[in-house]
């Protein structure tokens, strides 16, 4: 019946054009009609008969012979249209994308959109509805094969997967049809996408209705989405079907025209009677018929207005006839010298550009296609128990969706997924050997929401449903540990300052003068800086603080160790130069001592400058705390080599001091300052040797705390071991008098030393310490 209406639409359009005084006023259009019988051979034979003028019967008073047909409207099927590729044809229903190939089909035009647009629309609809697990059924012809290929191409990279792909054989073997239905029923895919012509789908769907398969959501293409042929027998099995339909318009007078033909007329009476019997379910009585009728008898008075007609493909037929008429009009209106062209009517058909009587602008693109536009129709069971169509949505080009009349929440949609959605706190893991839509849900990693990492400086909540700000952690002055270290740092600096003040106050006493006051003052000042540099390690890291803390630490400790080394070397050389008249000490006077300290300090300064210029320490962040729920602010060293050189140089000076003091351990017992220096260096080296593994293994802010503790411990070791005995003598005068008497005694017993100029500057100090001991 659909084909019958298409034929009547062509006749209606031809008659409408012939009545139009503006379009082809001096020319009358005629037509020939032939049944393709759904076979390529019949289609080709009919087409050849038309274009060569060999058609046997021609109806019409003005036609005295069978004319040659310049253009063919058809065929409806893509496979048949491919056969007609060598003739000039305008198809109203052949949507195979392969027909857009201008190399293979240069003479083909159509008023129906290519299936390339329909494939995009189907994928868009599946994604919109959340159907990620679908089955596909296609026909075994050009329409089905090409449509499935386009669909598979569009599905690449989408969130929709295909469970199965079944092909309806042209033989329509019942066993194969039933096998397809078994595959459909056994699949978890509740949605079935079809790409097949109406006759193939009818065979499949009749068996679906027979087996009462009602739990599937069918997606129909324009090939059968609006065919009223299914309304009388599909029942609830196909209710809810969503179909892509061509644009429906209201053509003035056509609806009335389709209902006014009667089987008693002279025009195409056999065809009309056959359609009438199928439409109303009755039979006409034939005079030669012997057997009685098995059903009701047709009276010819049945009313066609009771039949629902969906004007989708009909409008394509309407546009095809008007395109041909306008092309002929353009060809007749050609100017001398500007046509007609070599390829005749084809040239004008390709370049036609006009507005149809319903107000639509029509033209063909470079591939012979028109612009795409689809209606989404929903099948529902009407009051009489028959399937009816209702418009739900529109897909205008380029397949953008207007969600005004349909949405997933507005319908009772089936769930068609291979695996259920993963709950919060889990992620998808694709099952081995299956499409990406089939997965297992495994717990997400900590710090992720829906297995997506939280933004910077955010962390997942306990139930992994929301990202919360991380706790920022650094060694702060408000922390208990920071307060303790700050107090120790200030106390050490204060103690160093107090000792320096005491030495300066008693600078004229024999004790201070004999202790090389210049080195002592410089040593105490550097120790004070060592204590204070620990404060630079506390607080939120900043670029300036990161550079200050390491350079101040490195330089102050080098100055301190250089002073200690100078004192040790002078003591050792003084007691080793035992020969009378030996003048070796002239190379270790105050000037040489200052130069040695300056040289040692300059080496560290150069290393620090290069470090700060090439790769300075900078603030950085690292995950810390339980499961990384905190962000720890630290100072990255920038250059590991620079940091290693600073520490290595300090270690080198400390080692040399320790070795020198160790060599002086066997000096006379009264001269034992070397032993105290050796002991202080032993503490210093032990602290920094233990610092390395503790620094590496400490987490978060405790890394900084370990470094600060090492600085304070080594500084306190130097301060207490070297200056505590001297302070004891200064603070207790009675002990000072005894030491002074002992010093006079030494002057009389050691003439070879007393005559040395170095005696009062470096030798008296160990003597005083020995007396206290």
User: What ranges have pLDDT less than 50 throughout 5 or more consecutive residues?
Assistant: 397-410, 746-773
Number of strands: 21
Task: Give the proportion of residues in helices.
Answer: 40-55%
Gyration radius, rounded: 51 Å
Arithmetic mean pLDDT: 80
**Total helical segments:** 22
What is the strand arrangement across the widest sheet?
5-4-6-7-8-11-12
Structural class: alpha/beta
- Major β-sheet annotation: 7 strands, mixed
For the termini, the CA-CA separation is: 126 Å
Range of strand content: 5-15%
Question: In one word, what is the shape?
Answer: rod-shaped
Account of the 3D structure:
Helix content is 46%, strand content 13%. It has 22 helices and 21 strands. The protein has 773 residues and is of the alpha/beta class. The model is unreliable at 397-410 and 746-773 (pLDDT under 50). It comes from Electrophorus electricus (Electric eel).
Question: Keywords for this structure?
Answer:
3-stranded parallel beta sheet, 773 residues, 46% helix, 13% strand, single chain, alpha/beta
Summarize the structure.
With 773 residues, this protein is α/β, with parallel strands linked by helices. It is built from 22 helices and 21 strands. Helix 7 links the parallel strand 6 and strand 7.
């Amino acid at each position: 019946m659909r084909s019958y209406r298409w034929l009547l639409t062509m006749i209606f359009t031809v008659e409408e054009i012939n009545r139009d005084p503006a379009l082809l006023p001096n020319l009358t259009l005629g037509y020939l009609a032939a049944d393709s019988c759904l076979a390529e051979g019949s289609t080709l034979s009919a087409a050849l008969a038309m274009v060569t003028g060999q058609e046997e019967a021609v109806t019409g008073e003005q036609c005295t012979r069978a004319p040659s047909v310049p253009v063919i409207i058809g065929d409806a099927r893509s496979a048949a249209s491919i056969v007609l590729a060598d003739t000039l044809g305008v198809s109203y229903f052949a949507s195979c994308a392969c027909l857009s190939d201008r190399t293979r089909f240069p003479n083909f035009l159509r008023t129906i959109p290519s299936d390339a647009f329909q494939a995009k629309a189907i994928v868009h609809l599946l994604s919109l509805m959340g159907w990620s697990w679908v089955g596909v059924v296609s026909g075994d012809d050009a329409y089905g094969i090409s449509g499935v290929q386009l669909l598979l191409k569009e599905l690449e990279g989408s969130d929709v997967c295909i469970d199965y792909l079944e092909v309806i054989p042209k033989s329509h073997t019942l066993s194969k049809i039933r096998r397809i239905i078994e595959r459909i029923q056994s699949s978890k895919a509740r949605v079935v996408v079809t790409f097949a012509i109406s006759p193939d789908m009818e065979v499949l769907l009749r068996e679906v209705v027979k087996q009462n398969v009602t739990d599937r959501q069918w997606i129909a293409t324009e090939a059968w989405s609006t065919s009223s042929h299914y309304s009388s027998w599909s029942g609830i099995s196909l209710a809810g079907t969503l179909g892509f339909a061509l644009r429906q318009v209201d053509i003035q007078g056509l609806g009335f025209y389709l209902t006014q033909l009667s089987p008693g007329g002279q025009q195409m009476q056999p065809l009309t009677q056959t359609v009438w019997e199928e439409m109303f379910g009755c039979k006409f009585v034939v005079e030669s018929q012997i057997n009685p009728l098995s059903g009701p008898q047709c009276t010819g008075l049945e009313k066609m207005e009771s039949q629902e007609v969906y004007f989708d493909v009909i409008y394509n037929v309407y546009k095809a006839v008007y395109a041909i008429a306008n092309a002929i009009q353009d060809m007749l209106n050609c100017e001398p010298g500007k046509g007609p062209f070599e390829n005749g009517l084809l040239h004008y058909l390709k370049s036609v550009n006009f507005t149809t009587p319903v107000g639509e602008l029509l033209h063909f693109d470079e591939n012979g296609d028109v612009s795409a536009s689809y209606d989404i129709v929903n099948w529902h069971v009407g009051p009489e128990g028959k399937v009816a169509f209702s418009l739900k949505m529109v897909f205008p080009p380029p397949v953008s969706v207007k969600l005004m009349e349909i949405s997933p929440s507005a319908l009772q949609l089936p769930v068609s997924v291979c695996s259920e959605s993963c709950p919060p706190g889990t992620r998808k893991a694709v099952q081995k050997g299956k499409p990406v839509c089939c997965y297992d849900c495994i717990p997400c990693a900590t710090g992720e929401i829906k297995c997506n990492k939280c933004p910077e400086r955010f962390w997942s909540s306990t139930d992994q449903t929301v990202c919360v700000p991380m706790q920022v952690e650094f060694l702060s002055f408000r922390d208990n540990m920071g307060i303790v270290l700050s107090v120790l740092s200030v106390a050490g600096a204060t103690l160093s300052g107090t000792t320096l003040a005491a030495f300066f106050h008693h600078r004229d006493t024999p004790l201070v003068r004999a202790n090389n006051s210049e080195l002592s003052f410089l040593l105490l000042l550097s120790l004070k800086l060592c204590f204070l540099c620990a404060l630079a390690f506390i607080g939120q890291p900043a670029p300036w603080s990161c550079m200050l803390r390491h350079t101040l630490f490195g330089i102050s400790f080098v100055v301190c160790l250089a002073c200690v080394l100078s004192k040790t070397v002078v003591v050792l050389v003084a007691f080793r130069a035992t020969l009378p008249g030996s003048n070796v000490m002239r190379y270790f006077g105050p000037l040489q001592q200052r130069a040695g300290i300056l040289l040692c300090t300059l080496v560290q300064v150069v290393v620090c400058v290069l470090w700060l210029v090439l790769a300075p320490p900078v603030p950085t962040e690292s995950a810390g705390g339980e499961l990384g729920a905190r962000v720890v602010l630290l100072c990255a060293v920038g250059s590991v080599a620079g940091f290693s050189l600073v520490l290595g140089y300090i270690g080198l000076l400390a080692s040399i001091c320790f070795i020198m003091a160790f060599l002086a351990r066997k000096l006379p017992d009264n001269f034992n300052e070397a032993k105290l220096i050796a002991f202080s260096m032993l503490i210093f080296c032990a602290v920094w040797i233990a610092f390395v593994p503790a620094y590496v293994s400490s987490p978060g802010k405790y890394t900084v705390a370990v470094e600060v503790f090492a600085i304070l411990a080594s500084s306190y070791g130097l301060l207490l071991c070297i200056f505590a005995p001297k302070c004891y003598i200064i603070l207790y005068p009675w002990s000072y008098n005894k030491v002074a008497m002992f010093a006079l005694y030494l002057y009389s017993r050691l003439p070879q030393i007393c005559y040395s100029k170095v005696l009062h500057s470096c030798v008296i100090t160990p003597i005083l310490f020995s007396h206290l001991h």
